[in-house]
DNA sequence: AATCCTGTTTGACCTCGATCAAGCTTGCTG
DNA sequence: CAGCAAGCTTGATCGAGGTCAAACAGGATT
């Protein structure tokens, strides 16, 4: 198997903290894979064999309940990794991963990464940092689910994607509203309505382009 | 400072995976502390100096939003640890921790644990396993927040605390309904109503004692 | 036993957002 | 360019659960 160009991997959060030696050691075990829209990368509950770095495109991580209804746990962007928490234990995937468009990932064999992490403190440290970051994100997510309204979540998202000192801003949403809704724990309808409400606060939405007229005003919503 | 009896700490999830040497090494740095009901152990946003193992009692981990409204992220039981994800990075506490009654914790200096974890693969591995466990729990939590009703969350909680093969069961809630409501992301009123509804499914609640008449029936709710 | 105080339950109300069902854009493809 | 299929918006409806207020336990303390 041909090792992946480390320059490709270098942009990922898993690799960005690694020194050259560890990075190349880990890259040895990587395998590039491509997926098309809606293709399933991993399936919740299945035997876990791999961990992934997302290099291009977006991936939704979903969990389903008994009745088959499913929701998004996290939306992965380029540079994110997923399933990496299995390095610390667990034998099955805790969520499904679906490609949301054309996707390129680097796949790593779980057992091999485990062995590497056990030997290489640099790698285990990087994995730990990833997990800590995800922990913080998930806690934020629960907090916003439980105490913010749809409107607040959307404004928070917008504000977190522009420079607060500026007066106005133009944001290009990185993915379809569909995905954004999932990320924020909303239905597409609810997201749409939130945007509609924000119109009166000077927010103009044109496809994936969002123009915020008055950032300060938005902060007071 | 007198090292804590390792027998005390041994029951905690952080220590249960450690070999004797690592356990004693870490215990050296521990300090026992006691808190009374409602006392604040750590404060969200404050400079992080310590990580904790909960040895006795219960602790609620809360996050607040801008308006000061707060919710429980996680309820810690004896043996749980909290703030441990700071070992991987971050300089402020991501949540507040309040004692929910009489509480005994072991406090460890963050910088010292970081240094130890850096040297001792056993310790960093244990921390990693803790974090992975919390990750899974939080993902479950988000999933149940987003796709289960109050009734389903309560039944799931009950079912996860009894042996499913049995016909009936008696559960002693480990803490006040107050806390249970927070853990499940409900108001006390909503929890109370869920219990009221379950009465018709053969669930009798008397204070903290819950008798389930027909477990199989409950699973079909 | 009388009193607090805190936790729980119940009731009434009302808001938010999910759901279902159309219309309406877009972009893609023949 | 027509036509189709996604995605997105908008409207109407409805139910779950939050909020506020009041009644109701227990336990602990005098």
Descriptive account of the structure:
2 copies of one chain form a homodimer. With 221 residues, the first copy, chain A, is α+β, with helices and mostly antiparallel strands. Chain A has 2 domains: 141 residues, Jelly Rolls; 72 residues, Orthogonal Bundle (Arc Repressor Mutant, subunit A), CATH 1.10.10.10. Chain A is 39% helix and 24% strand. The first copy, chain A, has a 4-stranded antiparallel sheet. In chain A, strands 2-7-4-5 form a 4-stranded antiparallel sheet. The longest helix of chain A has 27 residues. Chains A and B meet through strand 5 and helix 5 of A and strand 5 and helix 5 of B. Chain B binds a DNA duplex (30 and 30 nucleotides) through helix 8.
